[in-house]
Structure formats: structure tokens, C-alpha cells
Here is the input.
Amino acid sequence: MSISNNPIHQFISVEQLGLQLQHAADLSMMR
Here is the structure.
């Protein structure tokens, strides 16, 4: 997997990371 300097690609990966963190936070809140 190559890291590209495409700002749109970086934005998408950052958004995905944020969604995963939010999902993990929701799961830990439920437990």
C-alpha cells in the first residue's frame, strides 16, 4: 500500500479513522 500525497485521499482516511474511533467509543460506552 503506497501513501499518496492526494489531499482528498488523506481527508478520506482521516474521516475513516474518526469514524472508527467514534464507533469504538460508542462500544466502550455501551459496556
In short: Residues 7-30 form the longest helix (24 residues).
